[in-house]
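WARN no homologs supplied; continuing
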Amino acid sequence: MRDYELVAMINPEVDEEGVAKIIGKVTQSINGRGGAVEDVKQWGRRRLAYPIQKVTEADYVLARFKLMPESVKELEAEIGASRDILRYLVVKVDD
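OK structure emitted
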């Protein structure tokens, strides 16, 4: 398994409970693929550099996890299908 980081920008129309549900779904998705979530940090609401889907702010979330490389594409497809996640980025962390 490799180490990865996920940064997701969540639509500000989603309340705190909804953000927790989104984080829970992503965590379940990682665990369901044989991975392990090591850390999740909520950075809070921040202003965007440019509007995305007519939205000027987003709630940022950082997750560090371990996952097999072949499962990352499936995870990205699932995250990308969510309407509440405006943008996301998954990067491999080198030690």
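The CA atoms of residues 7 and 62 lie 5 Å apart.
OK
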